[in-house]
Design a protein that fits this description.
With about 70 residues, the protein is mostly helical. The protein has 2 helices and 2 strands. The chain has one domain (about 5-50). InterPro entries: Fur_reg_FbpA (IPR025072).
């Protein structure tokens, strides 16, 4: 197996493991192991942005604050 193929497979496995930890097992009708690296990256970014505490509308926003140092 070439170095590039091994690297891609390692990254796919890493993303699948992270998605499973987040409770994601499928993307549509496909299981995660059936997805390409690009599809896994996209799914991971979507799930991560939805789970991140500062991505919601109620997150902290610093507006009009000047810090004097």
């Amino acid at each position: 197996m070439s170095q590039l193929t091994q690297t891609v497979e390692n990254r796919r496995k890493e993303l699948i493991d992270k998605l499973v930890i987040m409770g994601v097992y499928k993307h549509g009708e496909k299981h995660l192991f059936e997805l390409s690296l690009r599809e896994l990256e996209y799914k991971y970014r979507r799930v991560k942005s939805n789970c991140h505490p500062h991505s919601q509308t109620g997150s902290i926003r610093w507006v009009g604050k000047k810090i004097n140092v």
